[in-house]
Write a structure and sequence with these properties.
There is one protein chain. Helix 15 (569-577) packs across helix 16 (583-593). The two termini are 46 Å apart. A six-stranded mixed β-sheet has the order 24-25-26-29-27-28, covered by helices on one side. It has a six-stranded mixed β-sheet with strand order 31-33-30-34-32-35. It has four domains: 9-114 and 252-332, FAD/NAD(P)-binding domain (3-Layer(bba) Sandwich); 115-248 and 334-375, 3-Layer(bba) Sandwich (FAD/NAD(P)-binding domain), CATH 3.50.50; 438-549, PurM-like, N-terminal domain (60s Ribosomal Protein L30, Chain: A); 551-727, Phosphoribosyl-aminoimidazole Synthetase, Chain A, domain 2. The chain is of the alpha/beta class and 727 residues long. The chain contains 21 helices and 35 strands. Bound molecules: flavin-adenine dinucleotide. The site of flavin-adenine dinucleotide has 34 residues, from helix 1, strand 2, helix 2, helix 7 and helix 9. Flavin-adenine dinucleotide is lined by residues 14-19, 40-42, 46, 49-50, 52-53, 84-85, 111-113, 131-133, 165, 168-169, 253, 287-289, 299-302, 304.
């Protein structure tokens, strides 16, 4: 994002398809100042279709064909909203995202591809899967292959549709099953008189490959019903199938027909030669989901790819008021069709060849495409000015890494302690306890009220998700005191933006905050909002205590220490800021951070002491318990639960800005190795850490896991001076 210039326009890319992935990459190279970019996609990755048959056949791992949209969005300076669009209102320029509400746009583009589900065939929805969306098909195929390999089911597969895609997948699945269990029964059902449509030489070569692979082809036939272990054909014949795939054409996503968009009879979005959706100001469409009336083309990735530079320029034109360009797609394109093993045929200009080396050529083309996303250019950070004050390079940890966000950018615990001990805080009778625990305890008319405040720099530009996590982070202090959330005040800083964008951001923030506090039966009672260099968000929250609050001061020797959530958010968020974290791990992290822990706090209501693990890391917050309770703690490093991907990133040297300060403030005896890093890793929306009776530990862990938390018993409270040792 252009740091200093105000944001005045919203560009929303709906779907992480081939075109949008390339547009995002181009945007990262040359962003348009003043435009906020949002990418909406159901998952953190988007599969590159060219390598799908190779993945199904077992030539590629899933990661090899996945475009990491988290890394790509970070590179493009875009915010990634993980969700599925379910409606577009082109009049009010609003996109409805499932579970997320409305996202407003000035300019938007649709690149959501097609699906290959065939719900009109009885039993299809229950017993079959479309070849598209690729994510779902690839995941179900992996599960099926594992069940076949374990002998649980027969290697019986059927593909409905004998076009190029259907034949390619049938050969790929036959090859994989051959490799896994030495054989298979793969059938292709084709309504037409021949396979692979319009090109005879291609059809002949594919038919020969099918014969060689033992793939049975049923022509001039349709499927009457899909059953769990077979298909019934229209002629009454039954074909064995434990895994049925629909590849009989490209179908438009049904939800488009619910939006006021100009669609073809079969539901594709009508666009003009500039890829603008006809009659919809500021809306574009591309790839398989679009119909180019000026140049109709088959549904092929090559057209989605070639449209990218034109779309990118036309989006810039729409946002900056300049001229549009026409997209003139090529008439024909090279089709490299894989034949199961590492063999392929090539078809273009109506001619077909099948010679050695074609698969290798296809592989090079596909790898070259994916390398664009695997090796995103690193935008070098500006060199330090010279001369520069002493200590600047050290403060940058000598590597120019950006200051972390979330709890990773807290003021150092040592600095806070020094300021607090240098200040004689005013005392009041109705203030039962002040700074030092998760929340202060006030007495109001005999009722105990706790109050706490938190403020975070944005670790995601998705304002709705950031708000949700920041609110749950603040609630962690209330829950750990065994209090019931009561009221909340917001303090919002937005990067400089125009009023319409302020309104949109504020709406997303209020929508998310109200959802979190509403579900805790707490009320938002006010707040303050300003603009500044970047987005940050704070919550001041009060809670009521029907019973004595649980503080840091009650831990007893012999207690077990239980943690309700993995560690590693500091390392993962720091690596994500560098584009170094795997998008799937980041998405899983954010999903956990966005999960409330009120139910875990209720399960832990008998704890002797409890806190939530946040900015000062596990060791920092545990040491507070040790000091307040006058006890010692022993931790087992191997029992520390870690988020996926965190350990590998820590071993690669990724850690949070505040790590060193946390380490200095809470040294741990006998701690060594990469796992020890997580003792001082700052957590955002971290887990609850409780000292509980030893005898209750096993049942509590079971209860917390049953509630969907990842609980772990990580140590024991011991007699002795306040310190932490590791074993
Ligand atoms: C087996 C097979 C092999 C193929 N091989 C080739 C080939 O070799 N060469 C070739 O040119 N073409 C090939 N194709 C065709 C190619 O797959 C498509 O033309 C191409 O994927 C179209 O790209 P796209 O950008 O339109 O959408 P897609 O690549 O399908 O991407 C759509 C994206 O939108 C997301 N999305 C879907 N719904 C929503 C929603 N509601 N909200 C937000 N996001 C959403 C999806 O998750 C996905 O990330 C093949 C197709 C198949 C089935």
């Amino acid at each position: 994002m252009q740091a200093s210039l105000p944001l005045t326009r919203d560009l929303v890319l709906i779907g992480g398809g081939h075109t949008h992935a390339l547009v995002a990459r181009m945007w990262g190279m040359t962003p348009l100042a003043g435009t906020r970019v949002t990418l909406i996609n159901p998952g953190p990755t988007a599969p590159y279709s060219g390598m799908l048959p190779g993945h199904i056949a077992g030539h590629y791992r899933r990661q090899e064909l996945d475009i990491d949209l988290v890394q790509l969005s970070r590179f493009a300076g875009a915010r990634l909203i993980l969700g599925a669009a379910r409606a577009i209102d082109p009049v009010n320029k609003l996109i409805h995202v499932e579970g997320r509400g409305q996202i407003a746009y000035d300019v938007a583009s649709i690149d959501i591809g097609i699906h290959a589900e065939m719900p009109d065939i009885p039993g299809f929805a229950q017993h079959a899967t479309g070849a598209k969306p690729l994510d779902q098909y690839a995941a179900r195929w992996r599960t099926f292959l594992a069940r076949v390999s374990s002998g649980e089911v027969e290697p019986d597969v059927a593909v409905i549709g004998g076009g190029v895609a259907g034949m390619e997948l049938a050969l790929a699945m036959a090859h994989a099953l051959q490799g896994a269990v030495g054989g298979s029964r793969v059938s292709v059902i084709e309504v037409g008189p021949e396979i692979a449509g319009r090109n005879r030489p291609t059809a002949a070569l594919l038919a020969r490959a099918a014969q060689a692979a033992g793939v049975a082809v049923h022509l001039n036939t349709t499927v009457k019903e899909v059953c769990a272990q077979s298909l019934t054909l229209d002629n009454g014949a039954s074909v064995p199938s434990q895994f049925t795939v629909g590849a009989a054409g490209a179908f438009a996503h049904g939800w488009l027909s619910q939006s006021q968009l100009p669609l073809t009879d079969d539901g594709f979005v009508q666009v003009d030669e500039s890829l603008r959706v006809k009659g919809c100001d500021g809306l574009f469409a591309t790839g398989d989901c679009a119909h180019m009336a000026h140049a109709p083309r088959p549904k092929a990735g090559v057209f989605a790819v070639r449209a990218a530079p034109v779309l990118r320029d036309n989006l810039v034109a729409a946002l900056s008021g300049s001229e549009m360009k026409p997209f003139r797609p090529q008439n024909d394109y090279l089709k490299l069709i894989s034949l199961g093993g590492k063999h392929a045929l090539a078809e273009k200009w109506g001619r077909t060849i099948a010679i050695p080396g074609l698969w290798g050529w296809k592989n090079r083309i596909d790898q070259k495409f994916m390398d664009q996303f695997r090796n995103l250019p690193t935008m070098a950070s500006p060199p330090l000015p010279s001369p520069v004050s002493l200590g600047v390079a050290e403060e940058l940890h000598g590597n120019g890494k950006p200051l972390c966000a979330g709890c990773g950018s807290k003021v150092a615990p040592g600095a806070l302690d020094a300021a607090l001990s240098a200040t004689t805080l005013a005392r009041r009778e109705d203030v039962l306890s002040g700074p030092g625990d998760d929340a202060a305890i006030l007495s109001i008319g005999g009722i105990k009220q706790v109050v706490t405040t938190d403020h975070l720099r944005a670790f995601t530009e998705d304002a709705g998700l950031f708000t949700r996590i920041a609110a749950l982070h603040a609630l962690g202090d209330i829950w750990s005191m065994r209090a019931t959330p009561q009221a909340a005040l917001l303090s919002i800083t937005l990067p400089r933006m125009s009023e319409p964008l302020q309104r949109r951001s504020m709406t997303e923030i209020m929508h998310a905050a109200n959802e979190v506090f509403g579900s805790e039966n707490a009320a938002i009672v006010g707040g303050h909002s300003t603009m500044g260099a970047e987005m940050s968000l704070g919550f001041t929250v009060t809670g009521l205590c029907e019973r004595t609050p649980i503080t840091n001061a009650g831990a007893r020797p012999g207690d077990a220490l239980i943690l309700t959530r993995p560690l590693g958010s500091g390392v993962l968020l720091a690596a994500e800021m560098q584009g170094a974290a795997d998008g799937r791990d980041v998405a899983a992290l954010l999903r956990t951070m966005a999960t409330p822990q009120g139910d875990a706090a209720v399960a832990l209501r008998m704890a002797h002491a409890m806190t939530d693990v946040t900015g000062f890391g596990l060791a920092g917050h545990l040491l507070s318990i040790c000091r307040a309770s006058g006890v010692r703690a022993e931790l087992c490093l191997d029992n520390l639960p870690l988020y996926n991907g965190a350990l590998e990133l820590a071993e690669e040297g990724h850690f949070s800005s505040i790590y060193a300060a946390n380490l200095a403030a809470a040294p741990v005896v006998n701690a060594s190795g990469a796992r020890a890093i997580f003792l001082h890793d700052p957590q955002t929306a971290g887990g609850l850490l409780a000292a509980i009776p030893q005898e209750a530990a096993t049942d509590l862990k079971r209860e917390l896991d049953a509630k969907g938390h990842v609980a772990a018993v990580i140590g024991t409270v011991l007699e002795g001076p306040p310190e932490i040792i590791c074993r």
